[in-house]
Amino acid sequence: MNSILAQLHDSHQIWHGNNHHLISDSITTGDTGLDDYLHGGWPEASVIELQSINGIGELRLLMPYLASQAQSTRLVAFIAPPSQLGSQMLASNELDTSQVLVLYSQRDNDILWSVEQCLKSGCVGVIVLWHQQFTSAQIKRFKLAAEQGQASLIIIRHQPNLSLCLPVQLSLSLAPHQHGLMISINKQLGHWSKAPYLLDMRKQWPDLVTPVKPSNVIELSQRKVG
Question: What is the pTM assigned to this prediction?
Answer without folding.
Answer: 0.80
